[in-house]
Amino acid sequence: MTDTEIRFGILGCADIARKVSRAIALAPNATIAAVGSRSIDKASRFAAANGFPPSAKVYGSYDAVLDDPDVDAVYVPLPTSLHRRWAVAAAEKKKHVLLEKPVALSAEEFDHIVAACEANGVQFMDGTMWMHHPRTAKMREFLSDSERFGELKSIHSCFTFAASEDFLKNDIRVKPDLDALGALGDTGWYCVRSILWAADFELPKTVIALRSPVLNEAGVILSCGASLHWEDGKVATFHCSFLSNLTMDVTAIGTKGTLHLQDFVIPFEEGKASFSAATKSWFTELVTDWLPRPSEHTVVTDLPQDACMVREFARLVGGIKGSGLSPDKKWPTFSRRTQLVLDAVKASIDKGCEPIAIFN
Questions:
Q1: Which residues form the Gfo/Idh/MocA-like oxidoreductase N-terminal domain (predicted)?
Q2: Sign of torsion, CA 282 285 287 292?
Q3: 8 A C-beta contact, residue 53 and residue 24
Q4: Rounded CA gap, 106 and 181, in Å?
Q5: Cα(209)–Cα(165) distance, integer angstroms
């Protein structure tokens, strides 16, 4: 049976929308139906520059995309400060919502988005692409193996990049009225998501921001980190920054094994991705070598991870549209828990790195 083709509208012409537009074109069950911007000229140039199909409609407003009966779902790459308004508006027009991260400025804001999606029976998913790479499923198999990995004890995550001078002055991610969470909401979102993913989305009980976060003159975070603590003794740390060389590391350590990868957000190569797994590691007799050495595992994919994300979102939407299925609640749950941890880190920074308790 052929999957239902889901028709996407895109709200805005952000750089990330170029990548997701390509992903929609590559996904076998999706197509671009419309794009809207505050300027119809900008939307027209964006559609032409990114090879939109001739059938794609071009609008000079976001509302026009939401009013289009030929649009099933919308991708929203707008600044975080606009997420609540436009995600809620999309849901109220019965459009399924694929929303860029961070999903909101706070969990309270996000709850309004979820309530609108639930009230209107539409699917919600955030744009965390690496969650949909087939490598992620293979890594989950290792983490779930009690003989090879054992019990999870700690997770360490880092996502940094050295932003240009122009970025640090002009990008929306350093503007308090557009993306007030700065590096915490951008690179930090991925770090927190990786930690929660490794912990099977069990929320920590306490979060403590690391000392000496770096903020710009407007008070937006450029670099920060935190430690996360669970009641059973698990711990995690992360560091996120716009001020350090490109790094995308995750390490998960269990009682019997260790998982490590160096490119968790964007794989080194689009068509394949690797990770290392070590089980019951120790040294040789003279402590000169590891025995056994970590094993390398490579996962090949026919679709890039962003297209895998679109395919999965479109599959869920197709099930709702074509078979009357209910929206999958897993994805908004993952988003909300990630946002709760971000909120706690921000609160800890604001309070001089005091411990902050998390309540679901």
A1: 6-125
A2: negative
A3: no
A4: 10
A5: 26
Q: Which of 298, 334, 106, 294 is nearest to 199 (CA)?
A: 334
CB neighbours (10 Å) of residue 126? 27
**At residue 1, does pLDDT exceed 80?**
no
What CATH number is given to the structural domain containing 267? 3.30.360.10
Claim to verify: residue 203 and residue 187 sit in the same structural domain: yes
Find the mean pLDDT for residues 200-216. 98
Concerning whether 101 is annotated as a catalytic residue, the answer is: yes
Given 101, 138, 153, 280, the catalytic residue: 101
User: How far, in Å, CA of 173 to CA of 177, rounded?
Assistant: 10
- Give the CATH number for residue 97: 3.40.50.720
Give the pLDDT of residue 4: 86
Task: Say whether pLDDT at 63 is over 60.
Answer: yes
> Which domain, by its residues, includes 240?
131-304+339-357
Domain final residue, candidates 69, 94, 129: 129
Q: How confident is the model at residue 2 (pLDDT cuts 50, 70, 90)?
A: low
pTM score of the predicted model: 0.97
- Say how far apart CA 70 and CA 268 lie, in whole Å: 37
141 and 273 part of one domain:
yes
Q: Average pLDDT of 228-239?
A: 98
